[in-house]
Amino acid sequence: MTPPTPRLFIIRHGAHNIIDIDIPLTVRGEEQIKSKAHILVGEGKPIDPQNLCVALVSPRQRAHRTFHLLFEHLPKVPDHIIDESVREWDYGKYEGLPQWDIWRDGCPGGESAQEMRDRVDCVIAKVREYHRQYFEEGKGTRDVLIIAHGHFNRVLISRWIKFELALGTRFNVEPGGVSVLSYNHSSLDEPALNALNLYADLK
After folding, report:
1. 55 φ, ψ to 5°?
2. The predicted structure's pLDDT at residue 109
3. Which parts of the chain fold into alpha helices (H)?
4. pTM metric for this prediction
5. Which of 76, 86, 162, 195 is deepest in the core (most CB within 10 A)?
6. At what angle do helices 113-137 and 150-160 cross, to 10 degrees?
7. Cα separation of 138 and 135, whole Å?
8. How far is CA 25 from CA 83, 116, 137, 146, in A?
């Protein structure tokens, strides 16, 4: 019998005040996550710890706090990996500034668009290997979870469905929103976007 199709859940941290300086969630950001934790995470819920093969969490404190808020109502917080490869785009000289064409110019003193694409592609390759082992060899479990950031998640969605990085500008990834990436026709050769901004505060 064919196992359930593997999935990648990507969650953007809750609201904060400045682009990428490593600051905590705001009170509103904490409430965004707490309000959805009980309906999103738990046995039989969309994110069931029993189905989690691995959880990758950005080292930025707002992402790490988001992870713990999601799981703190459970008897045990799942194991997770603090992974630099899922950190936010390195904004370099633009860190803290509101606007520039990151999709075209990248970030002087930080990561170019090509460097960001390469990093995200490596993350995708890692996730797909977890999925392959589960789907083809019966190793591990179905789901991967990534807790990360706005630009990172937008690039990840674009690259997952085999589009250029710049398509990410067409996806709005809201604070606290959940996106689901998986595959069509139970084929690992057909990556697909299943959902975008589930449980987000769309105001």
Report:
1. -120, 125
2. 81
3. 27-40, 61-71, 102-105, 113-137, 150-160
4. 0.92
5. 86
6. 60
7. 6
8. 19, 24, 40, 17
